[in-house]
Structures are given as C-alpha cells and as structure tokens.
Specification:
This protein has about 1200 residues and is of the alpha+beta class. Helix content is about 20%, strand content about 25%. It is built from 18 helices and 44 strands. A six-stranded mixed sheet has the order 36-37-35-34-44-43. The longest helix is centred in the C-terminal third of the chain and has 35 residues, at about 1140-1170. It is globular, with a radius of gyration of 46 Å.
C-alpha cells in the first residue's frame, strides 16, 4: 500500500493498483480541500480510457438472454481472482446491495471489491433491444447527475452498482458538455415483464463476494481472456449481471470500445434465435458502428401491414399477413372495446298518432349512450366502428383503412353486422362473394346513350309557380310538398303553389347555412313545417315555417366544423360535418328528433366527403373515387362499418352525385366528375358497370319516376331511360342560364299536391319546378306511335347534290367532254325525282385572301361594294339559269319542274326545284343562314337552312361549309353545334301543329325540330393519324375501310356524345375520297402543301325511319379540286285526317290518366313507407282515405 501523501502529478492517489478508475475519480478534486466532497465538474476531455466498470445503481435494462449477455462459461477458476479477507474487510469492500457508495477520499484504501462473476456485456453490434416507443428522452439520464448521497437498497434485480463520479460517455453527447446535479426522471410504471424479472431475481442464488480489484487491469483482463473458453457453462450465475459494463477487450484498442450502458426503460427482448452450438467470441464480429443503436424499429401498425399486404398481392407475391417482428414477453396492452353484435331490440312504437300510428321504429332505451369506464387503463384507440357520445380524436389522414378496420382480429372480406329491419320488411342481406369490391370485373361501357329521339321541350308544370327568383346567392335547398326552402346567408321558404315568400331570416355576420333538410313530424299532415339547418360554425338549428322563426338550436355540436350534410332517415336525423363526425339523432318520447337532447350516437367517418346518400338502412359515403358503406344506428350495438375495403369504379373519376331509381330496384347509381355513371348492386356491393353518358361533369343526379335526370354546368338537364341498352336520351333542355347546382325529386309531391314534381336550383339563383311525369312528351310520343290511325302516307323521290365548285362557272364545264355531260347524265339517271336539291360551296374564290380581307376590313366606296355584289350575284345567277335550262332540256317532257327557292351566303348557294304536281302541297317556306367565319361575323363559313311543309310533314335542308384544316376537327364540331342549336326559323304558334308536324318538342325554330332533315356540304372532315402517302396508297389499293376507321366524322359519331351529327345517318361510303385533286387531273394534291385525301363532301339525313337512301356516289368533274357527290332518297310524307286525330288524341289522354294514377299510387306508397316509415297496411289505408276525400270533393264540386 502506498503512503497517503504519495499522489500523482494530477493529484490522484497512487494506489497499489494503478486503476484508471481512481484516476478519473480524482481528476476534478481540489488539492486545497482533499476531504471535501468532489464538486460537480465537466467530464474529462481526455482520450477514451480503457473500459471501466460502471457500478452506479440504475434501472434494469431488459436484455435478451441470448443477445444481451455472452453464453455461460465452461469453467471459472476462483484462484485467478483475489478475494479480500472476509474477517477484516476493507473499507472499500462494498456490497452490491448499496445503491450509491460513500464518498471516496484521497487516502489509500484497500482495493475495492468486485463480483466474482466475469463481465457479461451486451453484444457489440446490438447491445440493447429498445423499441421506438420505449426509448424516450427522459429515460436516459446522464450518469453524472446521480446524487452522491447513498440511498437505500432497491429490491429490484439487475441493479448495477457504480461510482457516482466515473466519467461515462453517453451516446450522442459531447464529453465537453457540463454535467448537472439534477436527478433523473422517475422510472416508468412497471410492466408485467419487470414483475416477472423480480420473481426470477428473488429465486436466484446469492451474489458471491466481491473480487479484489487491487490488481493491474491488464493482468486481470488477460487472465479473463485466457480463461474465457472455460467460462461457458455455469448455470447458477446465468441470471446475474456483472457490475462491469465494458466488454472484456484489450485496453490497447480504445477505438473499439463501447460506451457504458445507460439506464433505460425495460425494453422488449427480441425473438430468441435457435442455436445448436455456442456463439464465437463477440470480439471477432466486425462492427459497423461503435455506438449501440439507440432505437429498434417499432411494431408495424395494422393499417401499414394491410397496405403492404395489398401491395404484395398486386405485385404477385403470396398473400399473407404482414406482422411486426415477433417479441417475447410483451407487456399486456389494454384490450379494445368490442362491439356488441346482439340483435337489435324490437322496434317500439313512438307514440299513438292521429291519423294512424307511426310504424315501429328503433328507439334507443335512453337518450344517451353509456360508455364503459370501468377499466382503469386508458381508453383504447377508437376506430370508426366505435360509437361514442364524445368526439373521437381526428384521424391523422383524410381516409384510410386504419380508421375503418378492426385490428383486434383478422377482418373478413366483408363485415355484415346485424341490421334493423326496415318498415317495408325488405329482409336482411347476405354477402355472396368476396369479390364484391373487386374492380377487375367491372364492365366499362364506352358507347354513349342514343340521342336520336331527344326532346328539347321544357317539362313545365301546368299548375303552380314554375319559377321562383331567390334574390340572393344560395347553393342549398330542400323541398317537401308545397314548401321549398333555400339557405345561405339567409334562410327563406316559399310556396310552390303561388310563389309566396312564407319565411325569411338572416344568420348573422360570418355565419352561413351549409346544409338543410325538412324534419320529420308526429303527424304526416304536418310534414314540411319544420326545418333543420346546419351552418359553417358547427351549429344546428330548428326552424318552424308556421311561426316563421327558430325554435331551438344546438351550438357547437360539431365543434366548429362545417355541417355539410343533413339526412332524414325515417324519424331520425343524421348530421355530418367536414371533419367526418356523424351524429345520429333518434326520436325522443314524442317520436321525433329533438335538439334539446344530445345525439344518440356519434360516429367517425372518413374526411374528404364529396357525396353521400342513404340507401335503405345504410349510408353510402363517397370521398373522391372511394365509396364506403356504413350502417349507423341509434343504439350503437352494431358495427357501423359494412365493408372492409372501399368501392372504386375502375376508370371513373371522383364521385360527386348519385341516385336511386324505382324502376331499377337493388341498384345504386353514382355520377362521376368525368361524365361516367357507375352502377352498384345494393345486395353484394359489386360494380355492375360503368357507362359513359357524357364528356362533361355530372353536377347532380335524381331519380324522377322511372327515369334518371342529370344536370350539367351548361345549365342543361338531360333525362335518361336506363332500361334500354344503350341508354336513351329522352329529354335535353336548357333549364338555367348558369350551372345547375342540384335537382331534388320531391317524394311528397303526389301525397301533398297530387303531382310529381322535380325542383332544380341553378347558379342563376332561380328555383324551377318541373313535371316529373313528362306529360307533354308522353302525349306527343303516343300520338306519333298511333299516327297510322289518323294519317295517310306517301313516298316522294328526292335527288340531292353537293359540290365545292372552287369558284368555277357553268362555262368552265365546256372544256372537257366528261365535265360537260355531268349535269345531263345526273338528271337523266335520277328517275324524275319530286324534289331536287343543289348545294354549292365556294362559288366565289375564297382562296383569294386579299379580296376576302378587303371585303371584311377595308372601307370602300358604295359604288365598288355594289360592283362586288353584282359580280357575286352574277355567278349565282349563272348557275341558277344553267340548272333551269338543264331541267328543261334533259328531263322528260311530261315532268314539269318549278324553281322553289334559292339562297346564298358568301360562296354558298342552295337551289331547290320541285315537280309541278307537288308545288301546291308545299307551305310554310322559309330560309335562314348561320355565319361561322371569323367567329360568326363572316359568311365564308356557315350554313344555309331552308325549310317547308309538304302536306303535314316538315322538311329541312342544310347546306354547310365548315372550318378547314387537318387539325380543326373541334372547330368543325363547334360550327355544327352552333348551326343546329340556332333558333333561326319562324316559330310555329299552333300547339296541335307542333305535335303533328314537328318532333322533339320543337316549335319549328331549330333544325332538329323538323321531321325530315337532309344535310349536305363541304364538311371538311379529314382522315386522322395517317400520312398522305399512306392514304394515297390505301386509296389506290381500294382499302377504304382502313381509311374510314380514321375518318374524323365517323370517329366523332362513335366517341363524342355531344356531336350533333350523332342523330344523323349516312349511307356507307364506297367511293374514293373526293378531296383534294389537282384541278383538271385525277391526281391527288401534288402542290407544296400536299394535302392528304379526305371525304370532305358528304350527305347525311335524319328521319326516324322515314328517309331511305337509294344510292351514294361521286362524279368525275375535274374543273374543281373537289368531286361532286350525289344521293337519291325516298321521303315518306303524311297527311292527317282531323276527325280521326281527335279520337286518337282523346285515347292518348286517357292513357296518360291511367299512367298518372298508377304512378301516384306507387309514389305515395313509397313516400309513406320509405320516407315517413309507415308499414304497408297503414300506408295503404292513408292512400285510400285520401282518394275517398278527393272523390268526395269532386262530387260536391259537380253538385
């Protein structure tokens, strides 16, 4: 032993054992006060010392038995370790029972005692298994913060005694940082694994006496390495841990040292690895990091596991659950509250009502739902299927399966909770196939609906107010019988009988109503008098129309979230906000929802709501492209989630609308932003098909009667008959000046007003009510279907020619024999038609850009303008006179023709001849033109329209010249739309003539109003996606089918639902393209532009089966770059017998009354059973009583 006064140059004590431990203990001691307690000091910045055991007490570290310590040694030789004399213990001989050693003075003392157990250190690569959730900042205290005063012994096992001032490098902590004297954070609550370790520690053998540490560290460690192979199997000390924290390595390699272990929360041990032989020494295992990893990957969340599983399935991997790494001895977690699947209690009648009692309803036993709070553990994480009266925490994502899938057990493909039985006793549903949500079997139908028999007449109601101007900006409304309510910054209620304003009030500054719905009442006669209004600050209020005020409200019920939807479900009200919170308000003791009570249930639904509707007992909720199905209840006993995965229609856009049709039971229709409609089965949730009905966004859908109504941003409403394949467009009319916001089919209208009405709201702030039975259309269609009972029919022959003459004159035909004989051969082979139509284009030189620009922009003298007009008129007169002479010369002498009409438009010329025998049967002759050049200002492009009546049949002839250019197809589409939609002709005032002589609900002002239409002209449609040389080669090889597949006009008829020529027919083309030739030759264009050949010159017709085309051919006239095209037709003309027509009209009226009565019974029964909630017997009794009262009033009126 060294004397006390012999100290080293740094003031440290020179003991017999030159321990680096004592060196570090005395580094910060003051020489002036050697007996004082060592002050708090910074850690030593000296180079990393050899391993020093950390004997401070600390919390247990949960280390795996296989990985956290070396294997048991084979043998242990106690003679290699020096043990102090038990009879005269040294003052430094300490028991591991002490939490903190006493202060160390600089006096020479006996060597400290150590355990005889060899050092068991964690593996260098992965010393600790600490999960992410357990590695918290406050569980890793700085060793220098430990107080110096000793503490009582801890009963917990695995305590590691240590000296308080031994410098220990903490991972990711600079050694130069000053240490503090604050104690570490309190330990976390003890878990089941810690309790188990306590029991094991009490059962372990006693700790051996400490070993003498006065020996040189190098000698001691060298002997440990020599005896290491013998220290592999001593089971009695396998459960104890060495007080040395450092691994048994050489002091000469400090760069490979690991820092001492830090106290931390007991970690979850990793999965034991099966081994059949002892592991080699850890020192030979190469390490990539000298510091132990701080964290271990956390357990995989069930939602992430599900997503990974689905991704692997999509990529072709074997299907299997993705689980987190197996962890043994995991502490027990609080159990998730399980949903109760007991059958729903029988419905209890809410009250006895007069008139008849309301049918049995599901009414919760108490207005509140009790929440089980008996568990002392924190409440488990709530999923969407956990009903609660408290608000659930907002989800971390807008939507995801983690919110809707119960992870306590492997979810089945579909979840079908027990359901309430609806009043109409529809019965339960069983899931037949797990492929219901598969989009792979979805049938995408690309063919558009048939629009050849479209009707454009607005279906005005015969009684009541047709339109109401709201006089403020509103986007939400609801209707019930005679009452219609709009809301926004103001809430207003009108009467649809006379348009009177019944109620109006403001919501205040910054408050705006965002949802509205009529509330159920105790008496069906009072339906429509109470309103629920949700606003943008999460408040719900109830208004009474009769008292014209708010009678109750529920502020902040949706916690400042905007209430985006209010549903009425029998005698319940459901309110949904933008945060995904759904409140279910069941009936109170009076049988109706009450805002004075809290909601019966609250559910969490996905965010991102775009559309939702109630189907039976379920809420179909769409967020973007995904549709989820929920089954909310007032008692909360059933799981709200119906499907595990959302429904997604393949190839369709975002879901923004939807409806049901009584003519299509068991189906649900959803409208998408890209103009598609998806159809789902209500039984097994399978997607039955996806249809293209338009290329525009479908703003809203409504099932009115047997038809589907759809509205668009253009302000138009279309009515579709979905019973045909493809669908049929029944109607298409301009309902509003701006976009249509919403259409509502009023189910209460037949019961309340004895009519079927649909109400639409437009962005023009106009409310308009429409006839849901489409009475005028029904009568018109019935009359036309029975026209054989009151009409006589006759066929007439017609010859039509279209030719882009290229500014040629009749004299130009003289230079070639074939050209000169063209008109003669055409007339002589025409079989003396009754009507001849000659349509010319470019009779003036439109290629002369200078002359065209001068006519448009340059102001010139009146004399010069007159000269240009005379020159143009002279050209038209030349062709007119030439045609008149040709008819006189080449037609049979017994067939006399009259010039009926001529019309011109810059370059366009129409000349119509009729037989003398037909001339007296023609009436109502009129013509008009549509300019399309220069944005509708110039007539170089456009159309000439001529219409007249032959007997009681309307005929219309259109001569067109559309925009030129290979890439101008869309401009040509727009030209046709403008021509067809222009109301340019005189209106027909007589309603009976409209029904008899016009179609589609037209009044004769538009082209498509006429029964028989013939369109000719240079339409300029080209051949797409082919080079000129390819087209020329195909023409020479007579491979016309290949070219016709790429013809722009035919492609548009197949693919573009808004293409105006879809309603027209064309005889199959069997001749070569008529454009573009070198003038005077049979060669296609060889000029610098080298334009590709195309069928620019066409003849199309529309006649609903009463036009028959006999031939379709081209003629070889070389004076122009176009070839003329002709066609012979047979038109069927009718003449009406007035007396027979009157009888047929009466028959059609009776048919409509029969239809109306049938529809009324079905609609009233649906309203009373599916909306109000009465049973079938009660509903039938109410309908019978209503009919009896109506008959009684009618008899009194007659009397």
């Amino acid at each position: 032993m060294e004397p006390e006064g012999q100290n080293g140059p740094d003031g440290s004590s020179l003991r017999p054992v030159s321990s680096l431990r004592s060196h570090f203990e005395n580094m910060g001691k003051s020489k002036e006060a050697p007996d004082a307690a060592p002050p708090t000091r910074n850690e030593s910045p000296s180079p990393k010392p050899p391993p020093v055991p950390d004997t401070r007490p600390s919390r247990s570290v949960n280390v795996s038995q296989e990985e956290g310590r070396p294997k048991p040694r084979d043998s242990l030789n106690p003679s290699t370790l020096r043990v102090p004399n038990a009879g005269n213990p040294s003052p430094d001989s300490r028991s591991v029972q002490f939490a903190h050693p006493p202060p160390i003075s600089p006096k020479p003392v006996k060597p400290p005692a150590v355990l005889i157990e060899p050092p068991h250190s964690p593996p260098k690569g992965r010393p600790f298994s600490v999960s992410l959730g357990d590695a918290n900042a406050h569980l890793n205290p700085d060793p220098s913060k430990t107080p110096i005063t000793p503490s009582t012994a801890s009963p917990r096992s695995f305590k590691i005694p240590s000296r308080p001032n031994t410098p220990v490098l903490e991972p990711r902590r600079s050694p130069g940082l000053p240490a503090t004297t604050q104690p570490p954070s309190p330990p976390p609550p003890r878990r089941s694994a810690e309790l188990r370790r306590d029991r094991e520690a009490r059962a372990s053998p006693p700790i051996p006496p400490p070993v003498n540490r006065a020996e040189k560290p190098a000698n001691r460690l060298s002997r440990l390495f020599q005896n290491a192979p013998k220290l592999e199997s001593i089971p009695r000390i396998s459960e104890q841990r060495s007080p040395f924290n450092s691994p048994p390595t050489s002091a000469s390699s400090p760069e490979t040292e690991e820092p001492p272990a830090l106290p931390s929360r007991p970690a979850r041990p990793p999965q034991p690895q099966p081994q059949s032989q002892p592991q080699p020494q850890k020192a030979v295992i190469p390490r990539t990091n000298t510091f132990p990893p701080k964290f271990e990957p956390p357990p995989v969340h069930p939602a992430l596991a599900n997503k990974r599983r689905e991704q692997e399935e999509l990529n072709g991997h074997a299907k299997g659950p993705i689980v987190s790494p197996p962890i043994s001895n995991r502490p027990a977690l609080p159990s998730r509250p399980q949903t109760v699947t007991d059958p729903a209690p029988p419905r209890i009648p809410a009250n006895s009502l007069k008139p008849p009692p309301r049918p049995p309803r599901v009414i919760a036993a108490a207005p509140n739902v009790t929440v089980d709070t008996s568990l002392s553990s924190p409440q488990a994480k709530r999923v969407v299927s956990t009903p609660t009266t408290q608000f659930a925490p907002p989800p971390s994502r807008s939507h995801g399966r983690s919110m809707t899938v119960d992870t306590t057990e492997p979810p089945p493909e579909f979840r079908e909770p027990p359901r309430r039985i609806p009043p109409n006793d529809r019965g339960g549903r069983s899931i037949d196939s797990p492929s219901a949500t598969s989009a792979g079997s979805t049938q995408v139908i690309t063919s558009f609906p048939d629009s050849s028999k479209i009707n454009r007449r607005p279906p005005f109601l015969k009684q009541g107010a047709h339109e109401i101007y709201t006089k403020y900006d509103t986007r939400i409304f609801d209707v019930c019988g005679q009452y219609v309510c709009t809301s926004g910054h103001l809430t207003r209620v009108w009467s649809l009988l006379d348009g009177e304003l019944l109620m109006s009030f403001a919501h205040g500054e910054g408050v705006k109503a965002t949802s509205i719905a009529f509330k159920p009442t105790t008496d069906v006669q009072d339906e429509g008098t109470r309103l629920w209004i949700g606003n943008n600050v999460g408040e719900i209020m109830e208004a009474d129309v009769t008292t014209q005020g708010v009678i109750s409200n529920k502020p902040n019920i949706h916690t400042r979230y905007e209430v985006i939807k209010i549903f009425r479900h029998f005698n319940e009200m459901w309110t949904l906000d933008e945060g995904g919170t759904l409140h279910v308000w069941g009936p109170d003791s009076e049988g109706v929802p009450n805002l004075n009570n809290p909601p019966h249930q609250t559910y969490r639904l996905p965010k991102g709501h775009t559309f939702s509707m109630i189907i039976g007992e379920e809420l179909w909720h769409a967020a973007g492209k995904e549709i989820r199905v929920f089954a909310p209840t007032t008692d909360g006993r059933n799981q709200v989630q119906v499907l595990m995965r959302p429904l997604i229609a393949e190839g369709a856009g975002e879901v923004i609308s939807g409806t049901l049709l009584k003519s299509q039971p068991g189906k649900a229709f959803f409208g998408h932003a890209d103009g598609k409609v998806s159809i789902y089965s209500q039984k097994d949730f399978s997607c039955l098909g996806v249809l293209n009905i338009t290329s525009y966004k479908i703003n809203t859908l409504a099932g009115v009667g047997s038809y589907m109504w759809a509205a668009y941003n253009s302000g138009k409403i279309c009515v579709y008959d979905v019973s045909t394949s493809p669908w049929t467009v029944k109607k298409d009319w301009q309902a509003h000046d701006g976009p249509v916001v919403k259409i509502i089919a009023d189910r209460a209208s037949f019961y309340k007003l004895d009519r079927l009405q649909a109400v639409s709201l437009g962005a023009d702030n106009m409310l308009r009510s429409w006839d849901g039975l489409l009475q005028d259309d029904f009568l018109e269609n019935e009359m036309k279907s029975l026209d054989t009972q009151y009409c006589k029919f006759e066929d007439i022959k017609l010859l039509a020619m279209t030719w882009n003459a290229g500014a040629s004159t009749p004299s130009s035909l003289r230079y070639s024999k074939s050209d000169a004989d063209f008109v003669q051969n055409l007339l002589q082979s025409s079989d003396s038609p009754d009507i001849l139509i000659f349509g010319f284009q470019e009779l003036v030189d439109l290629e002369d850009k200078t002359a065209t620009a001068k006519r448009l922009f340059k102001k010139s003298s009146k004399k010069k303008d007159t000269t240009d007009q005379e020159r143009m008129s002279h050209q038209y007169r030349d062709w007119r006179d030439y045609l008149v002479r040709s008819l006189d010369d080449f037609m049979p002498a017994d067939h006399l023709y009259h010039l009926l009409h001529t019309a011109t438009l810059v370059g366009l010329f129409t000349c119509i001849f009729v037989k003398s025998t037909l001339r007296d049967r023609i009436r109502n002759l009129s013509s008009a033109d549509v300019k399309r050049g220069m944005g509708g200002l110039h007539g170089n492009k456009g159309a000439i329209v001529v219409r007249f009546m032959v007997d009681d049949t309307s005929l219309c002839f259109i001569n067109c010249h559309l925009a030129a250019g290979q890439t101008s197809a869309n401009q040509r589409h727009a030209d046709l739309a403008a021509i067809m939609d222009s109301a340019i002709l005189p209106v027909e005032r007589d309603p009976s003539v409209r029904v008899d002589s016009y179609i589609g609900g037209g009044d004769g002002t538009m082209i498509l109003d006429h029964e028989l239409c013939l369109l000719n002209g240079d339409l300029n449609y080209r051949i797409d996606t082919m080079s000129r040389d390819t087209v020329v080669i195909a023409v020479k090889s007579n491979n016309l089918a290949k070219l016709l597949d790429r013809d722009q006009l035919l492609v548009a008829r197949r693919r573009n639902p808004s293409f105006k020529l879809r309603a027209f027919d064309e005889m199959p083309i069997e001749f070569a393209p008529t454009y573009k030739y070198d003038v005077g030759t049979d060669n296609y264009d060889t000029s610098e532009k080298k334009r590709s050949p195309a069928w620019c010159d066409r003849l199309l017709h529309r006649g609903s089966g009463r036009i028959q085309q006999l031939d379709y051919k081209r003629h070889e006239v070389r004076v122009s770059d176009h070839r003329p095209v002709t066609g012979r037709f047979k038109f069927t003309i009718k003449s009406i017998s007035p007396k027979k027509r009157t009888l047929t009209w009466a028959d059609c009226q009776q048919r409509f009354e029969n239809l109306r009565e049938k529809e009324a019974n079905e609609e009233m029964l649906y309203y009373l059973t599916c909306v109000i909630g009465y049973d079938s017997e009660t509903s039938a009794s109410l309908i019978h009583d209503k009919a009896a009262r109506k008959d009684h009033r009618a008899s009194r009126h007659i009397g």
